[in-house]
């Protein structure tokens, strides 16, 4: 019992640090996205005051949607797919994509009184560009980590 308590405390502490690191990474990513979009859209002060609350609400809904999908995927980590479960997952995926499209449509209609169509298009392209940039950075970092291993005999 004396050994279990310190181990339990250690596990709880590690879990707390892990969650905090995850939240810190999410906040850092969010700040990078804001910076990237702000730079690309070149918003006026008045536009920014109206734009960011609407966009943040949209992002929050997207985040919840991704979390729901992620939790569904996690429930099937053991890869025991049968026909029924596969059909349910396909249906859920389609519904998720439809919901994402509906959220984007709502975002665009909410932004039309605030931004020009040109800036709305730049926003859509900026989101795609930000995702591509993140993927490229991830690949580059991953390749740097692997390259010393490849050079070893």
Description:
- This protein has a domain at 1-43 and 115-153.
- Helix content is 87%, strand content 0%.
- It has helices at residues 4-41, 45-75, 83-111, 117-151.
Concise description?
The chain is mainly alpha-helical and 153 residues long.
Which descriptors would you attach to this protein?
single chain, mainly alpha, 153 residues, globular, 4 helices, 0% strand
Number of separate helices: 4
Q: Mean pLDDT, nearest integer?
A: 82
Structural class of the secondary structure composition?
mainly alpha
Helicity, as a percent range: over 70%
Element-level helix/strand string:
HHHH
| Straight-line distance between termini | 48 Å
- Rounded to the nearest angstrom, the radius of gyration is 21 Å
Give the low-confidence spans.
Answer: none
- Please report the total strand number as a whole number: 0
Globally, the shape reads globular
The largest sheet, given as strand count, sense and whether it forms a barrel, is: none
Report the β-strand fraction as a percent range: under 5%
């Amino acid at each position: 019992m004396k050994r279990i308590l310190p181990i339990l405390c250690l596990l709880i502490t590690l879990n707390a640090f892990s969650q905090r690191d995850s939240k810190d990474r999410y906040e850092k990513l969010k700040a990078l996205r804001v910076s990237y979009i702000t730079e690309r859209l070149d918003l006026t002060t008045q536009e920014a005051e109206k734009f960011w609350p609407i966009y943040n609400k949209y992002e929050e809904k997207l985040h919840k949607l991704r979390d729901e999908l992620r939790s569904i995927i996690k429930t099937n980590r053991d890869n025991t797919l049968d026909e029924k479960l596969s059909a349910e997952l396909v249906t859920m995926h389609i519904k998720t994509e439809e919901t994402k499209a509906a959220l984007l449509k709502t975002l665009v209609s909410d932004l039309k009184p605030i931004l020009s169509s040109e800036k709305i298009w730049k926003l859509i392209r900026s989101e795609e560009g930000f995702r591509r940039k993140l993927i490229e950075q991830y690949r580059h970092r991953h390749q740097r980590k692997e390259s010393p291993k490849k050079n070893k005999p």
